[in-house]
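Quick one: co-fold with pyridoxal-5'-phosphate.
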Amino acid sequence: MAVGLQQGAFHRALRSTDQTRIVWPSRMRRTLAHAMNHPIYLDHAATTPMAPAAIEAMTKLLPVVGNPSSLHAAGRAARRVVEESREEIAAGLGCRPGDVVFTSGGTEADNLALKGVFWARRDADPRRVRILSTTIEHHAVLDPLEWLAKHEGAQVELLPVDRQGRLDVTALRQAVEREPESVALISVMWANNEVGTLQPLDEVVALAQPHGIPVHTDAVQAVGSVPVDFAASGVDLLALSGHKLGGPVGVGALVVRRELSVVPLTHGGGQERDIRSGTLNAAGVAGLAAAVTWSVGHIEEHARRLAALRDRLVAGVQQVVPDAIYNGADDPDQRLPGVAHLKFPGCEGDSLLMLLDARGIACSTGSACQAGVAQPSHVLLAMGCNEEYARSSLRFSLGHASTEADVDALVAAIGPVVERARKAMAVSRT
Ligand code: PLP
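Sure, here it is.
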């Protein structure tokens, strides 16, 4: 996407604002100018521009005062916004409004699901100390699991995936059947954020349900990209995040079956069924609801368009760099439509990223939350790739505003960029 041109409302608003009255710190001015002129944005899985409907819903409410917990008219109006947003999100995701717990984003939703359910299930039966998950989860899941193991005595088992990044269901079955009464919960992501592989959640639920084991899914990359129906999926908890689906940053939700006990992480005003205290962000929640409705409402058309762009990107890159390898699921229906993860033999992914950035093309070596930390991707390592392989891959991710021109610009740049990165690597080895 040509960010500067197509982020429509935001940029028009920014440009039309009387800039003389805003004193931007000089560093922020440079950063803003860079972002607005950055011509090719291929990192939508890290964060994607807000949908016009979400911008409209939010900006309308930003000047409106009212704490949704207050009893006066202003408070009741804010409460109405929150409850109508809850209903809208429930309609988009196939859950009940009462299942939606608003959070600050995906990371908080994952932490709440894992810690909250672990504590509640262990309190009910001290034998329940095992958590089954996968080696390819986002750090928003892996790190709370590590914390639970270190501080709370959780026994975390990370189950393997195959070469395409798909959970080994047989390994999960064996782990469950070994001692089902000791399993506190299972957590398997809906779609992987690096290679885009969809996970066999129906099989996970089929293994868990007979034993009454709750299933959590991190659906941060899935909602708005592939059809997600909470009730039909059979999962008990689901995390989503506004800024991945056309909503605002800093707003998300944990969908959690009302009947399930969850111990809160934060204590205070008792908002959100006492599971998540803290004053609700009415404008943000309205932006999230508008983004869910918009993205879910356009899902088929988006998916078709993004899959075609993705295929154009992969074919174009492989024509210029014939030894580039496309990572992830072989079956295109088992991938996120907007993600193309490619290995470029003989290159450092970080060098490629910087060389592309210098040409105005933004992409990622993996999850944005890890960017800057030069480590091989844990996802690719889990898929059986060696360190060299894992270090030489890039993720290009497309979004609602991506165009053929964006893809073609990448294809035009990638040849010389790969050549330079290969030379740099060869020099560093001599
Ligand atoms: N889970 C996945 C799969 C993600 O891709 C991300 C963000 O990259 C998160 C969780 C964290 O979400 P948030 O940025 O809203 O905290």
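If it helps, The first helix runs from residue 3 to 6.
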